[in-house]
Design goal:
2 copies of one chain form a homodimer. Chain A has 3 domains: 13-82, Arc Repressor Mutant, subunit A (Orthogonal Bundle); 87-205 and 381-394, Nucleotidyltransferase, domain 5 (2-Layer Sandwich), CATH 3.30.420.40; 210-376, Nucleotidyltransferase, domain 5, CATH 3.30.420.40. Helices cover 35% and strands 21% of the residues of chain A. Chain A has helices spanning 13-30, 36-43, 47-59, 123-137, 141-144, 179-183, 199-209, 278-285, 293-297, 304-328, 344-357, 379-394, and strands at 63-68, 78-82, 87-94, 98-104, 110-117, 147-155, 158-159, 166-169, 174-177, 193-198, 218-224, 228-234, 240-241, 332-336, 369-372. Chain A has a 5-stranded mixed sheet, sandwiched between helices. At the A-B interface, helix 1, helix 2 and helix 10 of A face helix 1, helix 2 and helix 10 of B. The structure holds a DNA duplex. Chains A, B: InterPro entries: ATPase_NBD, ROK, WH-like_DNA-bd_sf, WH_DNA-bd_sf. Chains A, B: Belongs to the ROK (NagC/XylR) family. Chains A, B: This is ROK family transcriptional regulator.
Chain lengths: 406, 406
DNA sequence: GGAAGTAAGTTCAATCTGTTTACTTATTCG
DNA sequence: CGAATAAGTAAACAGATTGAACTTACTTCC
């Protein structure tokens, strides 16, 4: 037999059925209120197939029936919605300065949040603390009568495609950590999907996946915080993430923006992070790592030095966004991370630069929408929860209901 | 009914059968010489299913049986190969200085080539000439007794996801051209798959798709010629290309490498193309657009000015490759385009820079393989042919054989 | 040389899936 | 109120994969 080669996807009748159940579920998720007839035309299935599939999804607690639609000359259809009261998803983010927890309904609605200041420490200690927090978290009343579909954890570092091991997280000082294996002993009773991902990639995924109606073809999330990273999600079918072999895709902080510029902690010169990042701003303005950057900076926004530093950082961000536009060409760019709270002194130069230069290659025809999230505290954690939902819907057998449902 | 939303993929039994036929065909394609039993374990299908599917692929002329395998204690398996004598693929490239034609067997083997000098002219004139060339080309004896699966055309410009219209090709001076519609009247008898794509993306696809054995997870093709562009192909299942909404993904020529640098023809300053591209080298060294760059430069390789220019361009290319490594993180980088013929004076600085800086973020553990193609004349055209094959195998019903076959 | 063992490939009834066709239900329009 | 229209359901049908039994073909061992 010849050497190793990848599996090709093939399937049996069971696979086909699960595929169709997933497709129906995704259709309802993306367009709440569709009827069985709508689904049949959308998904290219017959009414009969859709009918039986929907019935089984109703029994499993994934869907619920809604109001009768307006009739257009015949029997009115029955609206279908995700059953937001039966399952929930857990998302967490391990950040440099704290742990963040989120519980989401399948629609993406946030049910519970928790933001716990927590210092950088070892993987084991962090896993123990996060496990304890999650255990308490799941006892909150709004989650008591729901079933968990799984747990997703977002981390500030590079994760290879298999998603099992965190290769490097320079800002945490970690490398080669199998974080989910460390977490599991602390949550022995938890079942369902377990996964981890880079924080910017998780955020990108969530921003694309938890959206109804017309979804953009692709979405780039740029996370500007202590470091700077990005994630690209593509939404043709189920959202896919561009990861790169070593999980390095989107490590835009270390692209060279200024040949021969300042030395970066990575050893190269002129990296984007030397111009725009939490640590470079701190270094320039002499702000200690332990202090909150925004709090220390807010009273100093009149100082010429601060204004100048923020403007230069903003312009560099604009240039970075333009380069990303040209290399990735996403349909939509979302800017988040703690630095967005620095306000217009930082953001305006970035937006202005990007606006002024983005259409040079294509004329004025189309522009890319660029959205800034002011408070992105829970965006990555919610994105990790979104990944759990996607995995539950697509990759594995749909779980049976255990809590009573209609 | 709620607003527009995308189709979700669902399917019937026919879809499942085609999926399995495709999976089997891909398995044989990637690992020539597999037996039915190998396929069954690889593709997770039963021997019975594989047996009938293989029989139908043999009848259709896609596969042929080979020698008996060595026995390992039982009945030996019968090797299966792609039938390279039944179908062929046509690929063409419209370049700034000429038209290139390729005919490939399903294995990727090049059957015929043709390189025709052709000046930049209007889309209509080009389509007429290409059509005539293709017609003559298909009458060559090696193609006489084969069936064509379709035609793919590679072009130096941006093409949006639907692939139907060439948005902009600055080096040709074209914009918003439906090239395949212009070509069709000149080849009325041609059937099968018709497609066009950007030349770097087509090349990336071909380099990944026409490979047997262990294929890299992703491959980035960088095309350095008159302009500079790139294409990223990912090979988890069928190779997918990163295109971007406006087809701008991979337009690396216009990423800013040197803030405040020279003005680029796109209107911005310090674009990569101002440092490394056919036109910037011509401008710096005063070489006319109509002359062949390599021919004019070869006798001048001793001049300090030439040496300096090529070294600077090479260094910029190295920096660009590093930035691509960080934003895309492909498993393999392939460097092609006419500038690779400039030799070590240009290439060495690029490779040296890339080698020296690539592992700063991940330690010395893994390195990305970087391969240079010296003669990339037919790479893009062959890539377009590869796309035709992929489309024929995956997207549509497998055609019936018309020429007699075993 | 022959019998036993092992593995590849085939045959065919059984099972499971989506489809087709006919039917029931529920609303609008005249 | 009846005809028309459209949503949803039920039962027979068509088809693809499966599983078990079978045939084929080679190796190994006595």
């Amino acid at each position: 037999m010849p050497g190793s080669y990848q599996n090709q996807k093939a399937g049996d009748l069971n696979f086909l059925k699960r595929l169709n159940l997933s497709a129906i579920l995704e259709t309802v998720r993306r367009a709440p209120g569709v009827t069985r007839a709508d689904i049949a035309t959308q998904a290219q299935l017959t009414k009969a197939t859709v009918g039986t599939a929907v019935q089984s999804l109703l029994n499993q607690g994934w869907l619920k029936e809604g109001e009768l639609q307006k009739s257009s000359g015949g029997r009115p259809g029955r609206a279908l919605h995700l059953n937001d009261d039966h399952y929930y998803l857990l998302g967490a983010e391990v950040g440099v300065h704290g742990l963040r927890l989120v519980a989401c309904a399948p629609s993406g609605q946030v049910l519970e949040t928790q933001h716990e200041p927590f210092p950088c420490t070892t993987p084991d200690t962090t896993a123990a603390s996060l496990g304890e927090l999650l255990r308490q978290f799941t006892h909150r009343t709004s989650l008591q009568h729901r079933d968990s579909l799984g747990i997703g954890v977002a981390l500030p570092g590079t994760i290879a495609t298999d998603e099992a091991v965190l290769r490097r997280a320079p800002n945490l000082g970690w490398h080669d950590v199998r974080f989910m294996e460390l977490l599991r002993p602390h949550l022995p009773e938890a079942t369902g999907v377990w996964l981890m991902d880079n924080e910017a990639k998780a955020a990108a995924f969530g921003e694309l996946y938890f959206r109804t109606g017309a979804i953009p073809e692709s979405l780039l999330y740029v996370s500007a915080g202590t470091g700077i990273g990005s994630g690209l999600a593509e939404g043709r079918h189920l959202p896919l993430l561009t990861r790169g072999v070593q999980g390095l895709a989107g490590e835009i902080g270390h692209t060279v923006l200024q040949p021969g510029g300042l030395y970066c902690h990575c050893g190269n010169r002129g990296c984007a992070e030397t111009l725009v990042s939490g640590w470079s701003i701190r270094a320039t303005l002499g702000i200690d790592e332990k202090d909150d950057l925004i709090n220390r900076l807010t009273p100093r926004l009149q100082e010429p030095m601060v204004v100048h530093t923020l403007r230069r950082a903003g312009e560099a961000l604009g240039m970075l966004l333009l380069n990303l536009h040209h290399t990735q060409n996403p349909a939509e760019i979302v800017l988040g991370g703690s630095l967005t709270r620095l306000g217009p002194l930082f953001l305006d130069p970035a937006l202005t630069y990007f606006e002024a230069h983005q259409h040079r290659l294509l004329g004025t025809a189309q522009r890319v929408s660029l959205r800034v999230i002011e408070d992105s505290t829970f965006v990555a954690a919610r994105g990790a929860a979104a990944q759990v939902l996607a995995r539950a819907i697509h990759d594995q057998a749909l779980p049976q209901a255990t809590h009573g449902s209609s």
